[in-house]
User: Fold this.
Amino acid sequence: MRTDVLLIGGGVAGASAAAELRAQGFAGSVTLVTRELDAPYHRPPVTKALLTGSCSREDLLVRPEGWWEEHGIDLRTRTSVTAIDTDARTAVLATKDQIEFDHALVATGAMVRRLSVDGAHLEGLHYLRAPGNAEALRREVETAERVVIVGGSFIATEVAASLATLGKRCTIIMQEELPLERAFGRLAGAFVEGLFTAHDVEILRDEDVLAFEGDERVVAVRTASGGRLEADVVVIGAGAVPDVMLARRSGLALGDTGGIRCDVRLLTSAERIYAAGDACEYESVVHRRRVRIEHEDHAIAQGVTAARNILGADAAHDVVPYFWSDLADWTRLECVGAATTWDEEVASGDTAGGAFTVWYVADGRVVGALTVGRPEDLATARTLIAEQASAKRLSEVGVETTAARAARS
Ligand SMILES: Cc1cc2nc3c(=O)[nH]c(=O)nc-3n(C[C@H](O)[C@H](O)[C@H](O)COP(=O)(O)OP(=O)(O)OC[C@H]3O[C@@H](n4cnc5c(N)ncnc54)[C@H](O)[C@@H]3O)c2cc1C
Assistant:
């Protein structure tokens, strides 16, 4: 079999590339191969609306049933690509069928990072990535009283908020001092901690899991500092690792973050083969270094760039990343820039009142912004980050950095 464009991976990156090819008027053949049971779907509701039961699996679909056929896209679910011959430009499927292609996109996403401690095999431990994981967790928590959630980042905090709204007694065990501190810093972390306290979610900070106890099913979590917490159900949100099994096997170069190494155009080390989404490490013109980002809007935007480059645009991916995290109906955190390091955090607005923006400054430049309740700041932040603006420009939006304040006084 032969196809003009082969898209590998049916997440939002692969799906958005398919849609963009058609939106650009591409009339050639497009094949999307994914090992998922379902057509492309959104993952964010897995820790939120799907977990609390306020949406169904069908609501998660990226495109309505029938869309793929209507747009002439050969969608093959439950199918894995096992190898790519990058010189011959052929892909081998698990069925042993071979597909020849002109261009390909590797959008194989990420997998959960599993904990390897004693008792990690016990029943009652949950990791969340696919809709089935949320449905299984929801079924189990129906009869559970005490839920222990391991992790202090997005998955763990979102699950804790969702389960707390279902009336469950939740305890978070995290290595961080403040929830979401690694992603958003201390100012936002303190705000999120306040939300959990207000909703009776207990937090064990600076802590690690030593082991899970139980015969067949988990009954308790033992912590590194010697504590023991009884648990009916445990949810683990210990991060994700890029799924580069296919890329590695096919000889594509990998980068320092473990993702598929791409240039500014999202082109991999092989001619006419691109990567996008969670699996893609690219040379970012926005960040001025190599980054790999695990957020939905970013994966969608990269799918669009890859599709345009497949059609010959030859353009750098220069979209300033945007993402959000919802903690039940308590709050929405929105972020642009996806900065991972900074040397100064400055806030504008009312941090205590829950309507504020944190601006992240590195080497005197604005590299990111997080907002709660001030979405109007996002556009300003996007512009400042794209222009790699000096932190001095923050005063134009009414923000004074600590350094500027010190210089004034
Ligand atoms: C529970 C959860 C909640 C989230 N919430 C948010 C949120 O609130 N906000 C936000 O911005 N982001 C959120 N994210 C992150 C966001 O969902 C991801 O960044 C996004 O799904 C990445 O899309 P992707 O297409 O790169 O990868 P994926 O969605 O992982 O899709 C990759 C696909 O490739 C398939 N695949 C892999 N290897 C092969 C192969 N060899 N052959 C065939 N198919 C293959 C996989 O089965 C998978 O279907 C969340 C993620 C999770 C897991």
In short: The chain has a mean pLDDT of 96.
